Amino acid sequence: MNFALILLVLATVTGLIALVDKLFFSKKRGTDKKPNKIIEFAYSYFPVFFLVLFLRSFLIEPFRIPSGSLEPTLQVGDFVAVNKFAYGIRFPVFEKKIFSIHQPKRGEIVVFRWPPAPEYDFIKRVIGLPHDKVSYHNKVLRINGKTMTQKFIEYTTDESSGNSVVKYRENLDGVKHDIYVRSGIPSYDFDIEVPDGQYFVMGDNRDDSADSRFWGFVADEYLRGKAFAVWMSWNSHTSSPRWSNIGHFIY
Known about the structure:
This protein is α+β, with helices and mostly antiparallel strands. The protein has two domains: 2-59; 65-241, Umud Fragment, subunit A (Ribbon). 22% of the residues lie in helices and 36% in strands. Helix 1 runs antiparallel to helix 2 (37-59).
């Protein structure tokens, strides 16, 4: 939010300086006299600030994965590309939707403003759509009465925390993706119905994710975009890139 605001201010100020100079001062100055450094800066950097603001606000925005809540799908240090126009065009900085394009689909990984503190961005997987009835018992999801099946893959270790986990492949109403479950953690069971205009989201690391189970639903107005690819991945433990993660699409 702050970076977008800074870009907007820089683009506006440099654009105004360049426009005013073009309209009122450049002809009087003539071609033999150079403009001062502020005007030169405005002419040089306005296109850069405007282009970055446009790309970041309306097309693609980078986002760094800060926690292990979406492991094994996304790991700490993954840098993902977020499609900003997937769910609608929004006004820069204020994130006010100008018009809608698509609604989120079940299984998509979305970036959104965290409802308890909208100045922070979160990233989770969409589980429940508006009017869905979602149940979670013994760590198995049921949506509108249909069980989201899980297939055992292996016993492994959660990279971010070092905890022993069980990896399953969950079939989320046709979207197959891997999840982590810790056998020693009790299930946080619930039965809910998703309100109109709201979404229920969860992390793939089911026993190590602060998500809709604990702080509630995500309103449509808080959606920022759909994560679709990992363009860079950095392993802080080894201080080196995770080459195997780079370039893969997110499911």
